[in-house]
Amino acid sequence: MRRRPSQPIRAGTRCSDGFRGAPRVLLSAVKTCVVLPTYNEADNLASMVEALLALPAPDLRLLVVDDDSPDGTGRIAEALVKEHPRRCGAIHRQDKVGLGTAYLDGFRRALAEGADAVVQMDCDFSHSPHYVPGFLARLSECDVVVGSRYVADGRLDERWEKGRVALSVWANFYARTLLGIRVRDATAGFKVWRRAALLGLDLDRICSNGYVFQVEMAYVAQKLGYRVLELPIYFEDRRIGQSKMTIPIKFEAAWRVWQVWLRHRRLTPADRRAAAPT
């Protein structure tokens, strides 16, 4: 039977196909990997790891993907691996080679190690760790949970300048309009994926290596018919350090959205990776 195209599931609603009445996910039974790309996050990494390891999810593992940070983030990651050998891992990459490939390398390692759920999030506390257990608990209803700034009760940090807010809203409107993405926060970087969804996406077809990576993943997931649940978050401005998202980077991402459309516009649910293991 051909699956219906996916519909974004708003917070407070139920999935319309396949999981009605399913039991909620037991956090103790879910093998979860949190993928944390880092570049110059020496002031944040140890605190982020401590916060994540303190969550009520005993089978949660962390994977730091560091791009040869000059501030010593990689050395801190190695120290954390030695301190928590069963719960922390690290990938060290030569040079700053991009957010998209950092996530893809992390996803592949997490899947190879048998993760049932994969969390993607920033290391600067703009994505608060306290949301993770709630997101995991909702995977019984969908294939991917999105921490959304643009659904009801979602908020941006009040310290954001008006120009920065306007640019973020415009970027989402632009991507959603051009690609027909139904999720409200098309550029969201805080997500939890079911294992089967990442396998079915076929990560080899994802080519973006910047902030448009988030848009490409959202678009491909929708084209392949995966079910998306958006949950509201408060998106805090980074606590320490400077944002790596500059205006030139955002404008570059805007024209790369066209490449995403050209590359994937003909995808359908039939193009899911064949016989993706669960």
What is the general shape? globular
Strand composition percent: 15-25%
Supply Rg.
Answer: 18 Å
Low-confidence stretches: 1-7, 9-28
Tell me the CATH architecture: Alpha-Beta Complex
Overall mean confidence score, pLDDT: 86
Q: Major beta sheet, specifics?
A: 8 strands, mixed
> What class would the helix/strand composition place it in?
alpha/beta
Q: How many structurally independent domains?
A: 1
Number of H- or I-type helical stretches: 8
Which topology does CATH recognise? Answer: Spore Coat Polysaccharide Biosynthesis Protein SpsA, Chain A
> In the CATH hierarchy, what is the superfamily?
Spore Coat Polysaccharide Biosynthesis Protein SpsA, Chain A
The SSE string, one letter per element, is EEHEHEHEHEEHEHHEEH
Secondary structure: helix percent: 25-40%
* N-C termini distance: 19 Å
The CATH C-level class name: Alpha Beta
Q: Can you count the beta strands?
A: 10
Major sheet: order of its strands?
1-9-6-8-5-2-3-4
